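Consider a typical record:
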Amino acid sequence: MEYRFLSIKGFLITLLLLFPSLVSSQGISVNYYYQDVWNGWDGNNWVNMYHVYGNKKGYRIFKDGKQPADFFIRFWMTDYNVPSKKEIKTHYKNKQNWAYNGYVEYYICDVYPTFEDCLKELRRPLYEDDTKWFYKEKLAVVKANQIRKTGSFTPIGYKKVTKPAVIWILPYKKYPRVYNIFFDNVGFALDLGRNDEFFGKLKD
């Protein structure tokens, strides 16, 4: 199975000569679904900040300066099979999504105990830095409220969560481009943009 990095920095021309597995990816966009609505594609906040690593079966997203193991969200499909050219053509002509089963992994904390909480407050997934800056004040409020309601408080810290997910790949002409990941009444979408060919050519 082959994996490669996809950098979102715009100045990686020099690095490309040194590291063939790195490629510029200004065309990447993300979107989040919560409260029964998609909230608009957002590419601006991700430019120069994050990397994508994986292949067409799934991806990890992690902050600039980190490693793939430090992802703050990832997803993968468990029943993906490479479709034939005829199947790809038929799905594209009929505007039919590809539907797969899989998993999504992300992080939660005491202040943001669900993925939806993260989206409502942060407008993105949680990452570890969110549990550092001004976090103690927020945690103190959560702790006081919990003790008042239940008489006790058991902290969960910065915790990774794995959930079953339904993953759609939107119809495409040649290579998978847009992934929609649904779980717990929320959703996350990744659009590879013009980088779809880069990942589409990787070996499964």
In short: The mean pLDDT is 83.
